[in-house]
Amino acid sequence: MTAPRIRKAAIIGLGLIGSSFARALREQKLADEITGSARSASTRALAEEIGVVDRAFADPVDAVRDADLVFLAMPVQATEAVLRAIQGALRPDAILTDGGSTKGNVVAAARAVFGTLPAGFVPGHPIAGSEQSGVLAGRADLFLRHKVILTPVPESDPAAVAGVRALWEAMGAEVLEMAVERHDEVLARTSHLPHLLAFSLVDTLARESTNLDIFRYAAGGFRDFTRIAASDPLMWHDIFLGNKEAVLAALAVYTGELDFLRDAIARNDSDALLGIFTRAKAARDHFTHMLAGTAYAKAMKQKNIEYVVQPGGKLTGTLRVPGDKSISHRSIMLGSLAEGVTEVTGFLEGEDALATLQAFRDMGVVIEGPQNGNLKIHGVGLNGLQPPPGAIYCGNSGTSMRLLSGILAAQAFDTVMTGDPSLSKRPMERVAKPLRQMGAEIQTTGERGTPPVTVKGGKVLQGIRYDMPMASAQVKSSILLAGLWARGETVVTEPAPTRDHTERMLRGFGYEVKVEGATVTVAGGGKLTATRIDVPADISSAAFFMVAASIAEGSDITLQHVGINPTRIGVINILRAMGGDLTLSNEREVGGEPVADIRIRSARLKGIRIPEDQVPLAIDEFPSLFIAAACAEGETVLTGAEELRVKESDRIQVMADGLLTLGVDARPTPDGIVIQGGPIGSGRIASHGDHRIAMSFAIAALRASGPIEIGEAATVATSFPDFPGLARRAGLALAVVEKD
Ligand code: SPQ
Description:
Layout (H helix, E strand, L loop, with lengths): L5 E7 L3 H12 L3 E7 L3 H9 L5 E3 L2 H5 L4 E4 L6 H8 L8 E4 L5 H11 L6 E2 L1 E3 L20 E4 L7 H13 L3 E4 L2 H28 L3 H7 L2 H7 L6 H10 L1 H23 L3 H23 L4 H6 L1 E7 L5 E4 L5 H13 L1 E7 L5 H12 L3 E6 L2 E7 L11 E2 L4 H11 L6 E4 L10 H9 L3 E5 L4 E7 L8 E3 L5 H11 L5 E5 L7 H8 L5 E3 L2 E5 L8 E3 L4 H13 L4 E8 L6 H8 L3 E10 L2 E9 L20 H10 L3 E4 L12 H11 L3 E5 L2 E5 L6 E4 L4 H10 L7 E4 L11 H8 L2 E7 L1
Parallel strand pairs: 1-2, 1-4, 2-3, 4-5, 5-6, 8-9, 11-24, 12-23, 15-16, 19-20, 30-31
Antiparallel strand pairs: 7-8, 10-31, 10-32, 12-14, 13-14, 16-18, 17-18, 20-22, 21-22, 24-26, 25-26, 27-29, 28-29
Helix pairs in contact: 4-5, 7-11, 14-15, 14-19, 16-18, 17-18, 20-22, 20-24, 22-23, 22-24
Bound molecules: ligand SPQ.
Ligand SPQ binds next to α14, α16 and α18.
């Protein structure tokens, strides 16, 4: 909706908020005439002199006469008196709104005056301000990119609400709606409590006899924490009295936490202190990223990032791709459930693994880091997890949700797991079904059994024998993890070998795991003992550079410390079968996982029929292997890979669509694809927010005839946070474009 045309706007109170509102109205040409009212004669004179208002009056009645918009911007305690005064002069169809920081008392004051509230009454609160006050402090851009919360009452006319919303939006604000009570609770915690603490700390220190010294030596911490103690005292006096109930409730919670912190210091309780500080740091970092709109979980994916990759280039040099995603997830899970402190190096700081990390922090586990891939996990033992404060958000990560399902099924408390739009479409019954057979109570959503997943706590699990209908490491791991708490033995048989990181890592934590052919057995009732984990570089991330170096003529690249677990090396086997030139050196074992350096030189690839036994061993690498197939001579045929259709996207269809866009003959089949190698054109690819699709088409540009643009590439941060940087260093001409 476009903002309503205001003939006359009246602003009561010409301080920071009122005068900024007037300036913004003027700058955006939203009102023909602006009147104002202020108690102080000098404010009125200044407001007229600098043109904030056309006319300023001492009596608000004179200001509001004939106005079609009235904005209350005086201290909230004055609301009732002002409304009583202007009641008779208000036009019946006027929009009446305000900028008060508390809403319950503003609405109560209006009810006391009007009885039934006028239809034009739309309470609001711009979350913008400054420690400066007064008419001169106002700025036309004060509300730009700030939030404004509207709290319509039942009597508010929807047209008036829409009009107020449109006005704020025209001033550049982002408008939200909330119930009055909710607004006051939220603000009590996020704004009023911090102001109270800042006022109180500064006052406490100022009254101490040594205050001069204290202020002389006060450093950045004091300055940062207490900046808001310079805010307008009268305004804050009114806010605390106006929002008394919610402020007292927030203060009660906070003083309880402060007492706990004091006691933790008194009893030298390092775990308690680290727990509070690491959780707080993570939350604050998350908030910083949200504000900057740059990274971390939800925030990153909401950004619209595109890749534009120029054609040509070759790859040279030595590089190490980030840590293995599957192993990183499992290091958090088992480290949290172990007894003692587990140290992890090489941890992947990608959004998927960070979602798992956050889940365990939410369940009370103290995790220090991550810092440059280093973590210290203070394990709580198999029975030490605490109920999370709300739903566990798994972001884009199937591994988090499916493996957590097994762990949560055995806990004493209820949980709900949610995910982003991509994860919300993925099947979860594949883990829910066997977990139910073990005695778990677990619910998926909708006919297709997708997230959210609800897990009821307090169930006793029983070991089962389970023949998996599909080759899935996530299903296997979920059942095995539940088996740690189950009575008796849990026996899982897989139709084809899948990644065995869970089994290897359980052993690393001292838990007995029997593997006989395709069957894995664990018995419940054991314990995990903390250990050290060195996460190898992720072969799934390395795969993009393996394919890239193979297809780009003149390339010679070495990838260091890559995990070459036999259940993951399908990409090496398939590329070699296509004629790829890959050599492994420096083979060694770190923490139960084999690693090697891999040198890749460009080669003339040829199309092949991919052996089905390689499919589970290369399951995540097919998007990049399809690019290799497009660059190969002849036909490549993939079968037995229907699982690709239920990944972050339908990877068969989405890759086929992208290849066709680039002029490559790619024919999807129900369980695979047929690709004829040939020239690659240029074009715009929809990645459907699938990280591996985005990275695959980025490397396709090495052989393209023109630039390739790839949409929705922000999710690359889920598995490979610095892909663009590393790709550029290796030789790709990749630019990241941020869209609004
Ligand atoms: O975690 P998520 O979203 O399922 O990630 C993917 C990926 O491409 O990064 C799958 F889309 O990897 C899975 C993999 O495909 C990770 C994984 C694991 O760590 O156990 C196992 C595989 O999934 P599945 O369904 O075959 O068990």
